[in-house]
Design a protein that fits this description.
Strand order of the largest sheet of chain A: 2-10-9-8-5-3-4
Largest interface: A-B, 66 and 66 residues
CATH class of the largest domain in chain A: Alpha Beta
CATH topology of the largest domain in chain A: Aspartate Aminotransferase, domain 2
CATH superfamily of the largest domain in chain A: Type I PLP-dependent aspartate aminotransferase-like (Major domain)
Oligomer: homodimer
Chain lengths: 358, 358
């Protein structure tokens, strides 16, 4: 039986996509080879990379003066690539709204004068700082944010208006809601939440920002090299890119980001409404900033939390354990989570509450 | 029909491995989830990482004072990671025997005093320099080699005896022949030739060499961080690691590296013998240094080369076109290439020669 998988990442993929990948795993596009076996210089594979770029451009309405790159590894690697590619004046501002935002900030400090200009660490990252009150510094290379915070279940509702280019890690919400790409200098996202199996990251960067990087930049982290080589400077993570294309085709068929955004709001609304109307479950995030991708919640005590996770798992609702930094539970309900998964979770929560009323 | 795939990488995987991956693509180890969907913190997945390490240790007879890491990306990324992790004195020697060896050398120069102490570029990398005549410098951090040169079809028969730790890129021959790991400081290999789909690289490093890296080192390139976190510092390329484990299990069942080494020598012997006994085909590599993984060859002229590639492809012998740096053809006959693939190629070569005698 297929589980309802609430993992924060790697996470659920659309069933139809997995079935398609399974069908053609031994014979990709009539080549007589697996997509894992063909040369990245093979035309059948470069067509995949081109289609992936075109679909991302279409689904995210990416302006033509932005490059779209598929790069190796995860977003954590881009924590270094961002300063290495952009920190020409040696100065950048970071807003710290969670664990990954903080890691990005710490990595920025390796390469220059990175400053934390706002943080929500004082209240366990349960909100997004008031953007109007942030004193951004003058003459910085960029302002870095993490637009959705996987562990703490928050997201930006609006984005800061900054003089310097705005750089956003969108790993845990890419393609889940409509964003105006033209307001950003760079958007990057590890694939393993909404896009594809782990191993590839997409970078969407305004072309004028893609320049010669700092001298210490490893060649593989140079956006300029990746851009000049159409993401095929060396052997890319072919299988992950191929799967991303299947997921993007699937998303287009569903009606694109506009349609999935509505479905995501609906799914998250069901869950938050249920939690808010319960005196047993609690979500501690400031309502305005609640993520529609990651929903952390707790029962009245840690003992019941552990029991909840155990019994949910036995019922086929898996990977609900919250991150060790916050405890409790977390339901990650990315694009691929069907409405039925959320309603099954709510039904289980009702039953568990009844059986464990305190 | 399944093609005989002579691609230099990504390249052929064992059919049984692909079939197994296909069978369990929707349900890994009874989890009700695809291996691409489960959290890397899931016990079923960490068991995979542990098994991968254990199998590599067993099959390569890796001494216990060596770390075995699975890292993101390809060997090209390690071209930077090697100096960033090892260049504490700021000085390293490189032997340049091909395209990738040269790229590694160039990357080394970014981070310190990297010197090319021997090269075979004068004869289009058709040999390995005489190791006894190399004047290695004093007091270097390491000596870097590429043990098998994919594009030019050469390999080291013996390895240099160096005062400094020997670092080897073994991407295109890892697990294909017996090597004494204890003679090396570090061995690294991108997976996509003999091990798994592209996206993961293994690093085998003597533990005393794993120290704090240079200050400019991105966190994701720090071997120390990967070692301290059992290759799970961030989300790893899960599918590639899983496939590597299936390939390693398969190799063990076949009798390990000792058995596959014999088969590889046999396969390469068949092809080289045929070429050497022909007046039509030619391999330009100095015999002693011929690779048993990559066999470049030419017909009497470039026009016939093109015709050969075209007709071979139509016969189900694919990806035989040589690298643009050398032209002609190249048959990559990695571990997963069955003997039947090589005999089918030879049969085609005989037929082609007859039809196109000049």
């Amino acid at each position: 039986m297929r589980a309802y998988n609430f993992s924060a990442g790697p996470s659920q993929l659309p069933l139809e996509v997995l079935e398609e990948a399974q069908r053609e795993l031994l014979d990709f596009a009539g080549t007589g080879m697996s997509v894992t076996e063909i040369s990245h210089r093979n035309k059948a594979f470069s067509a995949i990379v081109e289609e992936g770029e075109a679909l991302l451009r279409e689904l995210l309405h990416i302006p033509s003066d932005y490059a779209v790159l598929f790069v190796q590894g995860g977003a954590s690697q881009q924590f270094a690539a961002v300063p290495l590619n952009l920190m020409h004046k040696g100065k950048a501002d970071y807003i710290v709204t969670g664990n990954f935002a903080k890691k990005a900030f710490q990595e920025g400090k390796i390469y220059g004068d990175a400053a934390c200009v706002a943080s929500s660490e004082d209240k366990t990252y349960s909100y997004i700082p008031d953007l109007d009150k942030i004193a951004f510094r003058k003459n910085t290379d960029y302002v870095h944010i993490c637009s959705n915070n996987t562990i703490f279940g928050t997201r930006y509702v609006e984005f800061p208006k900054t003089e310097a280019p705005l750089v956003a890690d969108m790993s845990s919400e890419i393609l889940s809601r409509e964003v105006d790409v033209s307001k950003f200098g760079v958007i990057y996202a590890g694939a393993q939440k909404n896009l594809a199996p782990a191993g590839v990251t997409i970078v969407i960067a305004r072309r004028d920002l893609i320049q010669d990087p700092l001298p210490a930049c490893p060649t593989m982290l140079k956006w300029k090299v990746q851009d000049e080589n159409g993401s095929l400077y060396n052997t890319p993570p072919c299988f992950s890119i191929y799967m991303a294309v299947l997921v993007l085709r699937h998303l287009k068929k569903l009606g694109g980001v506009e349609a999935i955004n509505k479905q995501n709001e609906y799914k998250a609304g069901l869950l938050y409404d249920f939690i808010d109307n319960s005196s047993f479950y609690k979500n501690g995030v400031e309502k305005k900033y609640r993520s529609i991708m990651n929903v952390p919640f707790v029962t009245p005590n840690a003992e019941l939390d552990a029991k909840f996770v155990k019994e949910a798992t036995a019922s086929g609702l898996v990977s609900l354990k919250g991150h060790r930094l916050v405890g409790g539970m977390r339901a990650s309900i990315y694009n691929a989570m069907p409405v039925e998964g959320v309603t099954a979770l709510i039904a289980f929560m009702q039953k568990f509450e009844k059986e464990n009323a305190v």
